[in-house]
Amino acid sequence: MDGSVARPRPLLALFVRLLAAGALSTMAMLVKLAGEHGVHLAELIFWRQALTALAMGAGLAAAGRLAVLRTQRIRAHTVRALSGVFSMGFVYGAVLLLPLAEATAISFTTPAFAVLLAMVLFRERIGRWRWVAVALGFAGVLVATRPGSGAIDPLGLGVGLVAAFMVALISYQIQDLNRTEHPLAIVFWFAALSAPVAALALPFFWRAHDPTGWALIGGAALAGAVAQVLLTSSLRFGSAATIIIMDYTSVLWAVLYGYEVFGDLPPASLWLGAPLIIASGAIVTWRERLRVRKPPLPGQGT
């Protein structure tokens, strides 16, 4: 596979990714609430996938659209499912180990990993503006998290960095699947194939829950399913190395949820790093608008 996409529509991709960032932030908030309510990480992953598969299967059946799930690439879906459930363990783990704002800031290293993967896997030429945007975003992350200062739990930092790398890698897997598969099929097969894998851990971590616990589990699953559809759709229209930078906007949601729901005031360093992070996303949006008006000449980077 190469690094191109089937139907490039960069501005639409950026907008859809913006919506996905909000949905993911909502999911993270509900996951953290569920963890504080006694729901284990393994349960959260299983129910997120199982409920998504059941809801999507039932909804498509009721709408007479089961045909969109047909695939000739079950092996690729299986690889995506295995890497996805592994990634979810680290993504959810970072949220449970760290305050929302800090966990979100660490996840912003994903664009740097995406650019490196684009170079290594696809030999994609990364232009100066994307490098500037990535550099600004990464500098903002360094300012916000202050690595080595003791302000961030080292275990949480490590878990968050692994999660960021896996998200970047999976973005390219989804981008490849988008060439032949419907976005709903990609999300469904991910959930349906990974739920049995996640179920292997249930005998060790299953617990009884009250109605509030089940509501949090269901809400996290719903928000995650919506986010997954939006993420998959965004990668149908734009390059992962470019649109993934829009995930920076989720820091605003993380700060809001962290304060309103958990009473966490973000450190002063986050307010210093956030403008750099937001500027990186603004640069990408500006460049994509220029590219729509005037496509680059052959051989030019963006």
Describe what you observe in this structure.
The protein has helices at 10-36, 41-62, 74-97, 100-107, 110-122, 128-145, 154-177, 183-199, 202-205, 211-237, 240-243, 250-262, 268-293. The chain has 302 residues and is mainly α. The protein has one domain (10-293). Helix 1 (10-36) packs antiparallel against helix 10 and helix 8 (183-199) packs across helix 10. The radius of gyration is 19 Å and the shape is globular. The model is unreliable at 1-6 and 296-300 (pLDDT under 50).
The helix content, as a percent range, equals over 70%
Alpha carbon gap, first and last residue: 21 Å
> How many separate domains make up the residues?
1
Query: What are the secondary-structure elements, in order, as H or E?
Result: HHHHHHHHHHHHH
Low-confidence stretches: 1-6, 296-300
Number of strands: 0
Main beta sheet strand tally, sense and closure: none
User: So what's the overall shape?
Assistant: globular
What structural class do helix, strand and pairing data support? mainly alpha
> How much is the radius of gyration in Å?
19 Å
Instruction: Tell me, rounded to a whole number, the average pLDDT.
Output: 82
Strand content: under 5%
Number of helices: 13
